[in-house]
Amino acid sequence: MAGYVLYGAVGSGAVAVEAALRLMGQPYELIEAVTFDEDHPESGDKVLGANPMRQVPALVLPSSEVMTESAAILIRLCELHPQARLAPGPDDPARSQFLRWMSFVSAAIYSLYWVKDDPSRLAPDEAAQEPLVQRCLERISDCWAIMNDQVEPGRWILGEELSVLDLYVTVVSRFQPRRKRFYAAAPKLAPIVQAVDALPELADFWPERYPFEPGWDRLPA
Ligand SMILES: N[C@@H](CCC(=O)N[C@@H](CS)C(=O)NCC(=O)O)C(=O)O
């Protein structure tokens, strides 16, 4: 049986899916499709056959079925590989909050990057673009703060069990403007993402797929 094929990109949300596949012990073929490299549009175009949205991640399942949407992919992988114990099951009391925050990160936060990364998509007027970027960043911070206030983490966001929600928040909190604002907005989540950064199972993975830059995760001065 064929394995997984992941369309991903270094420093993208697809890295959360890669991290999950690694922790699940599932091999995958990676097709690097950097959808945000304006100098090499042919790279991102590689994903078009799998995802007409021209976005990564897109995951081809062993059945050849294609899945897009990072939150849905992560949740589905947990259903397909329950032995990895990376999500509370349907009867687990933590399930509702798991689904709630997986959707929240995707819908309220990740989706804003479509505008933030290219404000001309919604603001053709050049003068309006920088203020729009700033509004997006404020909204992203506000959403992290709301999540921070509503969760009751233990060692991990949902309690004492690591889940793909921890991986997802860790990756999305690495997006611009990196962690500086995130730590200020979400102090309860800060030690959790740092613990995911430090997972021994992913020690070789992070530098390869979401490299650290000097000072990128410092607290604001
Ligand atoms: N809703 C999608 C968003 C995916 C997404 O925005 N991916 C980025 C990379 S982090 C991308 O490919 N952006 C290119 C674009 O939107 O043009 C998901 O959750 O998977």
3D structure, described in words:
By secondary structure, the protein is an alpha+beta fold. The protein has 2 domains: 81 residues, Glutaredoxin (3-Layer(aba) Sandwich), CATH 3.40.30.10; 105 residues, Glutathione S-transferase Yfyf (Class Pi), Chain A, domain 2 (Up-down Bundle), CATH 1.20.1050. 45% of the residues lie in helices and 7% in strands. The protein has 10 helices and 4 strands; from the N terminus they run E-H-E-H-E-E-H-H-H-H-H-H-H-H. The chain has a 4-stranded mixed sheet with strand order 2-1-3-4, with helices on one face. Helix 1 runs parallel beside helix 3, helix 1 packs antiparallel against helix 7 and helix 3 runs antiparallel to helix 4. The radius of gyration is 17 Å and the shape is globular. The mean pLDDT is 95. Glutathione binds next to helix 3 and helix 5.
Q: How many strand units?
A: 4
From the N-terminal CA to the C-terminal CA, the straight-line distance is 52 Å
Task: Indicate the CATH class of the largest domain.
Answer: Mainly Alpha
Determine the strand fraction and express it as a percent band. Answer: 5-15%
Chemical compounds bound to the protein:
glutathione
- State the helical fraction: 40-55%
- Contiguous helical run count: 10
What's the average pLDDT?
95
Brief characterization of the structure:
With 221 residues, the chain is an alpha+beta fold.
Can you lay out the helices and strands and say which pair or pack?
Elements: E1 4-8, H1 14-23, E2 28-32, H2 41-45, E3 58-60, E4 66-68, H3 70-80, H4 95-109, H5 113-116, H6 126-150, H7 164-172, H8 179-185, H9 190-197, H10 205-209
Parallel strand pairs: 1-2
Antiparallel strand pairs: 1-3, 3-4
The structure holds glutathione.
